[in-house]
Amino acid sequence: MGANAQTSVPLYVAAEVLTAANMNISAGTGVPVFATTVTRDAAFGGAGEKVLAEGQLAYIEASDVVQYYTGAAWATVGPASAGALVFINGTTFTTQTTVSMAAGTFTSTYKNYLVILDHQPGGSGGAAITYRFNVAGSPQTGANYYGSKSFISSAGTQTLTGASTATSLPMGQSGGTTGGGGTMTVYNPVSATTMTDVGGVWSAQGGGTFAGMYEVNEAHDGLTFIFATSSTGFYRVYGLADS
Amino acid sequence: MKIQVGDEVRDMTDEEAAQYALDVKEFAAQEKAEATKIKLKTALIAKLGLTAEEAALLLG
């Protein structure tokens, strides 16, 4: 029990001597603090205690939440859990040709992940981007990648790229210096008994879609991006909660 | 040649550098194949006597 935790919410009666201890309860706890919901419930309605009524606030140490009483039940202020879309990690990179997620980025905490990549190539060369799945932080380079990419340029020219027994998967296509960004969903990467699949959308001077998989039943804990021209940018990884 | 893993930037291992060299070759081959495909398509459209608009209608 923390220093602010209390076990009752006292009321005072006419002519009662107001002690320092009485005042300290009032001064020290604007919102009453309880160790658990059990001590919270026990603190109201007893002899000399405040009657629980709508609007009462309480802080619960065990769950680190602020609650309010509706008149019928206790409800939590703000989200009761972290939410459905949870930031995992991300980083910026400067003039890199290969950027890899840290080992353990994908874990069993989430079944599916959302990844955002944005980059600006540093030169006038080609700006194709491919990606690989990581095992213990290292990209898998076996010829087990199957997928495709469709990109329509701003001139209306469509480029279709297939990948079969490839060593990486096609993702984006940017101008030499104009850059681009993509969003991808990574499906069930941590399952050791299924294959990891990915699908996404790429935006640049034009747009496209990409999808693919690594045809080996194994768990993956991150992605590695490979740039044809060294690039500056960032990536972000989010876990998609099941509820 | 460098590689970035999470927030850490380090020198590539020999294996990583060799892999990136292969990747660059593959990028170039892919780019060449795509350029060739576009060139052939353009030549075919010209052979058929279609305008760019007509070709877009046909292929769209």
What's the gist of this structure?
Helix content of chain A is 6%, strand content 49%.
Q: What topology does this entry show?
A:
The complex is a heterodimer of chains A (243) and B (60).
Chain A: H1 20-28, E1 33-34, H2 37-42, E2 57-60, E3 65-69, E4 74-76, E5 85-100, E6 112-121, E7 127-135, E8 138-139, E9 145-153, E10 158-166, E11 169-174, E12 180-187, E13 196-204, E14 206-214, E15 222-240
Parallel strand pairs in A: 1-2
Antiparallel strand pairs in A: 2-3, 3-4, 5-15, 6-12, 6-15, 7-8, 7-11, 7-15, 9-10, 9-14, 12-13, 13-14
Chain B: E1 2-5, E2 8-11, H1 14-48, H2 52-59
Antiparallel strand pairs in B: 1-2
Describe this structure in words.
The complex is a heterodimer of chains A (243) and B (60). By secondary structure, chain A is mainly β. Chain A folds into two domains: 20-76, no CATH class; 85-240, Jelly Rolls (Sandwich), CATH 2.60.120. Helices cover 6% and strands 49% of the residues of chain A. Chain A contains two helices and 15 strands. In chain A, the strands form two sheets. In chain A, strands 5, 6, 7, 8, 9, 10, 11, 12, 13, 14 and 15 form an eleven-stranded antiparallel beta sheet that branches. In chain A, strands 1-2-3-4 form a four-stranded mixed beta sheet. In chain A, strand 3 (65-69) and strand 4 (74-76) form a beta hairpin. The longest helix of chain A is centred in the N-terminal third of the chain and has 9 residues, at 20-28. Chain A is elongated and about 85 Å long. The mean pLDDT of chain A is 89. By secondary structure, chain B is of the alpha+beta class. Chain B has one domain. Chain B is built from two helices and two strands, in the order ββαα. Chain B has helices spanning 14-48, 52-59, and strands at residues 2-5, 8-11. In chain B, strands 1-2 form a two-stranded antiparallel ribbon. The model of chain B has no long low-confidence stretch (mean pLDDT 90). The A-B interface holds A 89, 91, 93, 96-102, 105, 126, 128, 130, 137, 139, 141, 156-159, 161, 167-168, 170, 226, 228 and B 1-7, 9, 12, 16, 19-20, 22-24, 26-28, 30-31, 34, 37-38, 56, 59.
